[in-house]
UniProtKB/TrEMBL annotation:
Residues 3-200 form the Isochorismatase-like domain. One of its GO terms (biological process) is pyridine nucleotide biosynthetic process. The keyword Metal-binding applies. The keyword tRNA-binding does not apply. This is Nicotinamidase. NCBIfam families: PRK11609.1. Keywords: Hydrolase, Metal-binding, Pyridine nucleotide biosynthesis. Belongs to the isochorismatase family.
Length: 203
């Protein structure tokens, strides 16, 4: 069985949000159209406590974009975003959620960041996504959402490592692009790891 996995299409990652992805809102109509082609749809949601260690505001004197050691891992510092129960953490109002089977929340542990929808960045915390998909007989995973160079990339890579045939829908994702070519690098990294890149029109 195939599943559509929608990654973090939340207000804070969209224009006007705390950590906006340029043109991130342009993928919403594409994702809504894609959902008509799938009977099995799940989503991930960044869901941080206010004291999360990835927030620059929680490290006095450190600027956004700087780095600290967080639980033994080099951590880039982000603006405060997707705080639990906040408007910024909610999914965009135009995103169709009617057919979603389950939402998997990530980033809940303040001591470690979580880009992937499967595991935290230390691979100690497990969202339960992999076990759930396998228990439902999912073998093919089609991934879209935000952002291509962080949460989407790590979700795709972990999906492959978990044994799923994993597709990235390239026109249904956008990148943060801290560096100008981060989107292209992310696509290359995912493909090199075994991801199959395709356009939504070919599904």
């Amino acid at each position: 069985m195939k599943a559509l996995l929608i990654v973090d299409v939340q207000n804070d990652f969209l224009p006007g949000g705390a950590l906006p992805v340029k043109d991130g809102d342009l993928i919403i109509p594409i994702i809504n159209k894609l959902q008509k082609k799938f009977s099995f749809i799940v989503a991930t949601q960044d869901w941080h406590p206010e004291n999360h260690g990835s927030f620059a505001a929680n490290h006095g004197g450190h600027e956004i974009g700087g780095f600290v050691q967080l639980n033994g891992v080099k951590q880039i510092l982000w603006p405060v975003h997707c705080v639990q129960e906040s408007q910024g953490a909610e999914f965009h109002q135009d995103l169709d959620k009617e057919k979603w089977i389950r939402i998997f929340q990530k980033g809940t542990n303040p001591l470690v960041d979580s880009y992937s929808g499967f595991f935290d960045n230390n691979k100690n915390g497990d969202t339960g996504l992999s076990d759930f998909l396998k228990s439902e007989g999912v073998r093919e995973l089609y991934v879209c959402g935000l952002a291509a160079d962080y949460c989407v990339k790590f979700t795709v890579i972990d999906g492959i490592d978990e044994g799923f045939t994993t597709y990235l829908i390239t026109d249904a994702t956008k990148a943060v692009n801290l560096q100008e070519d981060d989107f292209e690098k992310a696509l290359e990294e995912m493909e090199d790891h075994g991801a199959i890149l395709l356009d939504s029109s070919s599904i």
